[in-house]
Design a protein that fits this description.
This protein is an all-alpha fold and 220 residues long. It is 76% helix and 0% strand.
Length: 220
């Protein structure tokens, strides 16, 4: 008779030793009782996992609705940029260290992309085709922000990349954004300001949704 017929292979060591002893003693009644208890335990863990998923869905859904209302009411901020930072926060672990790391790495990526945009407009080498010049700038900037990941506050390359990409997404989709007047302005027309503010608020909403989800899980 196979031991795994009675006890799943992922059971803890103490349970396995007890089960082996009962099997040797041919105490099949207690053996099946132990398996029943184990299955109840596993089912309880599955219920808890389901409660956790439900709590997360409610927490993120509620805070997402509030964020959408706020961003659409203000209009100057970028809801999609906030959701990018929101997802990035959870990808970093959704814990306390992830807050500061997400903020700094997102912002760092935005700053690097903003500098690239300024240099792309400068065109110091007129004979060099624009695609070649911009391609060189992107290659160098990506190399630099990845190398900068050795510094802890900039250590999340994915978060920096998302900040970088979000910056260029805004520039490429917003008329007038890729010009010196906008890039050097002190208002929300400047991609440097609007993206960093939007992503920072997105991180704040991510933290709030995580706390709400944790509170709902604790009550479940």
């Amino acid at each position: 008779m196979r031991f795994t017929f009675f006890v799943p292979s992922n059971v803890g060591g103490q349970f396995q030793h007890t089960a082996i002893f009962l099997l040797r003693e041919k105490n099949f009644t207690d053996m099946f009782l132990m398996r029943h208890v184990f299955l109840l335990y596993e089912n309880n863990k599955r219920v808890k996992r389901m409660n956790s998923v439900l709590a997360t869905a409610i927490g993120v859904g509620v805070m997402g609705g509030i964020a959408t209302f706020m961003f659409l009411s203000i209009e100057t901020l970028l809801l999609w940029a906030a959701f990018v930072a929101w997802a990035c926060y959870f990808a970093l672990g959704g814990d306390r260290p992830a807050i500061s790391l997400n903020l700094t790495s997102n912002a760092f990526g935005v700053v690097v992309a903003w500098i690239v945009a300024l240099l792309a407009l400068a065109k110091p080498f007129p004979a060099l085709p624009a695609p070649v010049w911009v391609g060189l700038l992107v290659a160098l900037s990506v190399f630099l922000y990845i190398m900068a990941s050795r510094i802890y506050i900039f250590s999340s390359v994915p978060a920096a990349t998302l900040g970088y990409a979000t910056t260029f997404a805004y520039i490429s989709q917003t008329p007038g954004a890729f010009a010196y007047p906008a890039l050097l302005s002190a208002g929300f027309h400047n991609v440097l300001i609007v993206v960093i503010v939007s992503m920072s608020i997105g991180t704040a909403f991510a933290v709030a949704s995580a706390k709400l989800s944790a509170a709902l899980t604790a009550k479940a």
